[in-house]
Protein backbone atom coordinates (compact mmCIF):
# COMPACT_ATOMS: atom_id res chain seq x y z
CA UNK A 1 0.00 0.00 0.00
CA UNK A 2 2.85 2.40 0.76
CA UNK A 3 4.23 1.96 -2.74
CA UNK A 4 0.84 3.03 -4.10
CA UNK A 5 0.82 6.04 -1.79
CA UNK A 6 4.22 7.01 -3.18
CA UNK A 7 2.91 6.53 -6.73
CA UNK A 8 -0.06 8.76 -5.98
CA UNK A 9 2.16 11.46 -4.50
CA UNK A 10 4.30 11.33 -7.65
CA UNK A 11 1.16 11.44 -9.83
CA UNK A 12 1.83 8.01 -11.29
CA UNK A 13 -0.89 5.67 -12.54
CA UNK A 14 -2.13 3.36 -9.79
CA UNK A 15 -2.31 -0.39 -10.40
CA UNK A 16 -2.96 -3.31 -8.07
CA UNK A 17 -0.56 -6.23 -7.89
CA UNK A 18 -2.33 -9.17 -9.56
CA UNK A 19 -0.93 -11.57 -6.95
CA UNK A 20 -2.62 -9.54 -4.23
CA UNK A 21 -5.96 -9.71 -6.04
CA UNK A 22 -5.58 -13.44 -6.72
CA UNK A 23 -4.70 -14.03 -3.08
CA UNK A 24 -7.85 -12.33 -1.85
CA UNK A 25 -9.90 -14.19 -4.45
CA UNK A 26 -8.57 -17.50 -3.15
CA UNK A 27 -9.46 -16.51 0.41
CA UNK A 28 -12.98 -15.49 -0.63
CA UNK A 29 -13.53 -18.75 -2.50
CA UNK A 30 -12.23 -20.94 0.32
CA UNK A 31 -14.70 -23.38 1.85
CA UNK A 32 -12.40 -24.44 4.67
CA UNK A 33 -11.47 -21.10 6.23
CA UNK A 34 -13.54 -19.64 9.06
CA UNK A 35 -15.89 -16.94 7.75
CA UNK A 36 -14.89 -14.47 10.44
CA UNK A 37 -11.25 -14.96 9.46
CA UNK A 38 -12.12 -14.37 5.79
CA UNK A 39 -13.93 -11.14 6.69
CA UNK A 40 -10.91 -9.88 8.61
CA UNK A 41 -8.41 -11.08 6.00
CA UNK A 42 -10.05 -9.11 3.20
CA UNK A 43 -10.54 -5.95 5.29
CA UNK A 44 -8.15 -3.13 4.42
CA UNK A 45 -6.28 -1.33 7.20
CA UNK A 46 -7.86 1.94 8.27
CA UNK A 47 -6.59 5.30 7.09
CA UNK A 48 -5.39 6.15 10.58
CA UNK A 49 -3.37 2.93 10.83
CA UNK A 50 -1.63 3.68 7.55
CA UNK A 51 -0.85 7.29 8.44
CA UNK A 52 0.62 6.21 11.79
CA UNK A 53 3.35 4.43 9.85
CA UNK A 54 4.24 7.46 7.73
CA UNK A 55 6.94 9.96 8.70
CA UNK A 56 4.72 12.78 7.39
CA UNK A 57 1.06 11.83 7.39
CA UNK A 58 -0.69 12.52 4.09
CA UNK A 59 -4.47 12.12 4.56
CA UNK A 60 -5.30 12.95 0.94
CA UNK A 61 -2.91 10.38 -0.53
CA UNK A 62 -3.89 7.66 1.93
CA UNK A 63 -7.59 8.27 1.34
CA UNK A 64 -7.19 8.28 -2.44
CA UNK A 65 -5.12 5.09 -2.47
CA UNK A 66 -7.33 3.22 -0.02
CA UNK A 67 -10.41 4.21 -2.02
CA UNK A 68 -8.71 3.08 -5.23
CA UNK A 69 -7.78 -0.30 -3.74
CA UNK A 70 -11.26 -0.87 -2.34
CA UNK A 71 -13.01 -0.04 -5.61
CA UNK A 72 -10.53 -1.97 -7.73
CA UNK A 73 -10.92 -5.06 -5.55
CA UNK A 74 -14.69 -4.68 -5.69
CA UNK A 75 -14.52 -4.46 -9.48
CA UNK A 76 -12.18 -7.42 -9.99
CA UNK A 77 -13.78 -9.62 -7.33
CA UNK A 78 -17.38 -8.57 -7.93
CA UNK A 79 -18.70 -12.05 -8.72
CA UNK A 80 -17.06 -13.56 -5.64
CA UNK A 81 -18.30 -10.75 -3.42
CA UNK A 82 -21.83 -11.10 -4.77
CA UNK A 83 -21.70 -14.84 -4.15
CA UNK A 84 -20.58 -14.26 -0.57
CA UNK A 85 -23.43 -11.84 0.09
CA UNK A 86 -25.98 -14.23 -1.39
CA UNK A 87 -24.72 -17.35 0.37
CA UNK A 88 -24.55 -15.65 3.76
CA UNK A 89 -28.06 -14.25 3.88
CA UNK A 90 -30.30 -15.62 6.59
CA UNK A 91 -33.96 -15.19 7.43
CA UNK A 92 -33.56 -16.90 10.79
CA UNK A 93 -34.00 -15.08 14.08
CA UNK A 94 -31.01 -13.08 15.29
CA UNK A 95 -28.50 -15.23 17.14
CA UNK A 96 -25.30 -14.24 18.90
CA UNK A 97 -23.10 -17.27 18.35
CA UNK A 98 -19.85 -17.70 16.45
CA UNK A 99 -21.34 -19.03 13.23
CA UNK A 100 -23.97 -16.28 13.06
CA UNK A 101 -21.50 -13.52 13.91
CA UNK A 102 -19.03 -14.85 11.32
CA UNK A 103 -21.73 -15.09 8.65
CA UNK A 104 -22.87 -11.51 9.26
CA UNK A 105 -19.30 -10.22 9.31
CA UNK A 106 -18.46 -11.76 5.95
CA UNK A 107 -21.69 -10.69 4.29
CA UNK A 108 -21.44 -7.13 5.57
CA UNK A 109 -17.78 -6.77 4.61
CA UNK A 110 -18.50 -7.95 1.07
CA UNK A 111 -21.52 -5.68 0.81
CA UNK A 112 -19.40 -2.67 1.79
CA UNK A 113 -16.90 -3.51 -0.95
CA UNK A 114 -19.64 -3.82 -3.56
CA UNK A 115 -21.40 -0.61 -2.55
CA UNK A 116 -18.16 1.33 -3.03
CA UNK A 117 -18.61 0.83 -6.78
CA UNK A 118 -21.68 3.08 -6.64
CA UNK A 119 -23.25 1.16 -9.52
CA UNK A 120 -27.05 0.87 -9.89
CA UNK A 121 -27.14 -2.91 -9.43
CA UNK A 122 -25.07 -2.96 -6.24
CA UNK A 123 -26.86 0.08 -4.85
CA UNK A 124 -30.12 -1.79 -5.38
CA UNK A 125 -28.58 -4.84 -3.71
CA UNK A 126 -27.53 -2.83 -0.66
CA UNK A 127 -30.95 -1.19 -0.51
CA UNK A 128 -32.65 -4.59 -0.61
CA UNK A 129 -30.35 -5.86 2.15
CA UNK A 130 -31.28 -2.81 4.20
CA UNK A 131 -35.03 -3.26 3.69
CA UNK A 132 -35.04 -7.03 4.23
CA UNK A 133 -32.77 -7.07 7.30
CA UNK A 134 -34.32 -8.88 10.25
CA UNK A 135 -32.10 -7.26 12.87
CA UNK A 136 -30.49 -3.91 13.59
CA UNK A 137 -26.93 -5.21 13.10
CA UNK A 138 -27.47 -6.17 9.48
CA UNK A 139 -29.68 -3.19 8.75
CA UNK A 140 -27.02 -0.83 10.11
CA UNK A 141 -24.32 -2.58 8.06
CA UNK A 142 -26.40 -2.12 4.91
CA UNK A 143 -26.95 1.52 5.86
CA UNK A 144 -23.19 1.96 6.29
CA UNK A 145 -22.65 0.46 2.84
CA UNK A 146 -25.21 2.81 1.29
CA UNK A 147 -23.86 5.86 3.11
CA UNK A 148 -20.47 5.62 1.39
CA UNK A 149 -21.86 7.49 -1.60
CA UNK A 150 -23.53 10.92 -1.45
CA UNK A 151 -26.97 11.26 -2.97
CA UNK A 152 -30.68 10.85 -2.37
CA UNK A 153 -30.49 7.11 -1.71
CA UNK A 154 -28.09 7.79 1.14
CA UNK A 155 -30.21 10.59 2.59
CA UNK A 156 -33.44 8.57 2.37
CA UNK A 157 -31.87 5.54 4.05
CA UNK A 158 -30.39 7.62 6.87
CA UNK A 159 -33.73 9.29 7.54
CA UNK A 160 -35.60 5.98 7.42
CA UNK A 161 -33.17 4.38 9.86
CA UNK A 162 -33.48 7.27 12.29
CA UNK A 163 -37.27 7.17 12.15
CA UNK A 164 -37.22 3.46 12.98
CA UNK A 165 -34.68 3.59 15.79
CA UNK A 166 -35.02 7.09 17.24
CA UNK A 167 -36.20 5.76 20.60
CA UNK A 168 -33.03 3.71 21.08
CA UNK A 169 -30.36 5.96 22.59
CA UNK A 170 -27.39 3.75 21.70
CA UNK A 171 -28.52 3.17 18.13
CA UNK A 172 -28.98 6.90 17.57
CA UNK A 173 -25.43 7.45 18.82
CA UNK A 174 -24.23 4.93 16.23
CA UNK A 175 -26.29 6.79 13.63
CA UNK A 176 -24.53 10.04 14.49
CA UNK A 177 -21.11 8.37 14.43
CA UNK A 178 -21.75 6.80 11.03
CA UNK A 179 -22.38 10.20 9.49
CA UNK A 180 -19.59 11.92 11.41
CA UNK A 181 -16.92 9.46 10.23
CA UNK A 182 -18.07 9.56 6.61
CA UNK A 183 -15.50 10.40 3.94
CA UNK A 184 -17.98 11.98 1.54
CA UNK A 185 -16.77 15.34 0.19
CA UNK A 186 -17.47 18.36 2.37
CA UNK A 187 -18.76 16.30 5.27
CA UNK A 188 -17.98 19.08 7.74
CA UNK A 189 -21.12 20.85 6.49
CA UNK A 190 -23.24 17.77 7.20
CA UNK A 191 -21.80 17.47 10.70
CA UNK A 192 -22.46 21.16 11.37
CA UNK A 193 -26.10 20.60 10.41
CA UNK A 194 -26.32 17.59 12.73
CA UNK A 195 -25.41 19.83 15.68
CA UNK A 196 -28.92 21.25 15.30
CA UNK A 197 -30.59 17.83 15.04
CA UNK A 198 -33.26 17.33 17.73
CA UNK A 199 -31.58 14.12 18.90
CA UNK A 200 -28.23 15.81 19.46
CA UNK A 201 -27.47 17.42 22.80
CA UNK A 202 -24.17 19.19 23.43
CA UNK A 203 -24.72 18.54 27.14
CA UNK A 204 -24.64 14.79 26.56
CA UNK A 205 -21.03 13.51 26.49
CA UNK A 206 -21.83 10.34 24.55
CA UNK A 207 -23.57 12.31 21.81
CA UNK A 208 -20.56 14.63 21.65
CA UNK A 209 -18.15 11.71 21.39
CA UNK A 210 -20.27 10.11 18.66
CA UNK A 211 -20.68 13.19 16.49
CA UNK A 212 -17.75 15.50 17.15
CA UNK A 213 -15.32 12.79 18.24
CA UNK A 214 -16.39 10.70 15.27
CA UNK A 215 -15.71 13.58 12.90
CA UNK A 216 -12.20 13.98 14.32
CA UNK A 217 -11.65 10.30 13.57
CA UNK A 218 -12.15 10.85 9.84
CA UNK A 219 -8.68 11.78 8.54
CA UNK A 220 -9.83 13.09 5.18
CA UNK A 221 -12.54 15.31 6.71
CA UNK A 222 -10.92 16.50 9.93
CA UNK A 223 -7.57 17.08 8.22
CA UNK A 224 -9.08 18.74 5.14
CA UNK A 225 -6.38 20.86 3.56
CA UNK A 226 -8.56 23.97 3.58
CA UNK A 227 -8.61 23.85 7.39
CA UNK A 228 -12.41 23.56 7.58
CA UNK A 229 -12.21 20.55 9.90
CA UNK A 230 -9.81 22.28 12.27
CA UNK A 231 -11.91 25.45 12.28
CA UNK A 232 -15.04 23.45 13.06
CA UNK A 233 -13.41 21.72 16.02
CA UNK A 234 -11.92 24.96 17.34
CA UNK A 235 -15.34 26.62 17.37
CA UNK A 236 -17.04 23.61 18.93
CA UNK A 237 -14.40 23.30 21.67
CA UNK A 238 -15.04 26.88 22.80
CA UNK A 239 -18.78 26.30 22.78
CA UNK A 240 -18.45 22.99 24.61
CA UNK A 241 -16.04 24.42 27.18
CA UNK A 242 -18.83 26.54 28.61
CA UNK A 243 -20.96 23.42 29.09
CA UNK A 244 -18.54 20.63 30.02
CA UNK A 245 -14.83 21.50 30.26
CA UNK A 246 -13.81 17.87 30.78
CA UNK A 247 -15.42 16.75 27.53
CA UNK A 248 -14.10 19.84 25.74
CA UNK A 249 -10.56 18.99 26.84
CA UNK A 250 -10.93 15.51 25.37
CA UNK A 251 -12.08 17.00 22.08
CA UNK A 252 -9.20 19.47 21.86
CA UNK A 253 -6.76 16.57 22.22
CA UNK A 254 -7.55 15.75 18.57
CA UNK A 255 -5.05 18.52 17.78
CA UNK A 256 -2.28 16.88 19.81
CA UNK A 257 -0.51 15.29 16.81
CA UNK A 258 -0.61 18.32 14.55
CA UNK A 259 3.15 18.25 13.93
CA UNK A 260 2.85 14.90 12.11
CA UNK A 261 1.30 16.59 9.09
CA UNK A 262 2.56 18.81 6.29
CA UNK A 263 3.42 22.47 6.87
CA UNK A 264 0.10 23.75 5.54
CA UNK A 265 -1.92 21.62 7.94
CA UNK A 266 0.48 22.38 10.79
CA UNK A 267 -0.08 26.10 10.34
CA UNK A 268 -3.87 25.70 10.24
CA UNK A 269 -4.01 23.45 13.32
CA UNK A 270 -1.60 25.67 15.23
CA UNK A 271 -3.77 28.70 14.48
CA UNK A 272 -6.78 26.97 16.03
CA UNK A 273 -4.83 25.98 19.14
CA UNK A 274 -3.63 29.56 19.54
CA UNK A 275 -7.18 30.82 19.06
CA UNK A 276 -8.44 28.45 21.76
CA UNK A 277 -5.73 29.44 24.24
CA UNK A 278 -6.40 33.14 23.74
CA UNK A 279 -10.16 32.82 24.33
CA UNK A 280 -11.59 34.70 27.31
CA UNK A 281 -12.88 32.63 30.20
CA UNK A 282 -11.28 29.41 29.01
CA UNK A 283 -11.36 26.55 31.52
CA UNK A 284 -8.16 25.20 33.03
CA UNK A 285 -8.94 21.78 31.55
CA UNK A 286 -8.98 22.98 27.96
CA UNK A 287 -6.16 25.49 28.45
CA UNK A 288 -3.83 22.81 29.78
CA UNK A 289 -4.48 20.33 26.97
CA UNK A 290 -4.34 23.00 24.26
CA UNK A 291 -1.08 24.39 25.65
CA UNK A 292 0.50 20.94 25.86
CA UNK A 293 -0.64 20.17 22.32
CA UNK A 294 0.83 23.42 21.07
CA UNK A 295 4.17 22.65 22.69
CA UNK A 296 4.25 19.00 21.62
Automatic annotation (TrEMBL):
Looking at the UniProt entry, the stretches that span the membrane are none
Q: Which domain of life is it from?
A: Eukaryota
Identify one Gene Ontology CC term for this UniProt entry: chloroplast
Using the record's annotation, list all stretches that form the Peptidase M1 alanyl aminopeptidase C-terminal domain. Answer: 8-295
Q: One MF term in GO for this entry?
A: zinc ion binding
**Protein name stated in the entry:** Peptidase M1 alanyl aminopeptidase C-terminal domain-containing protein
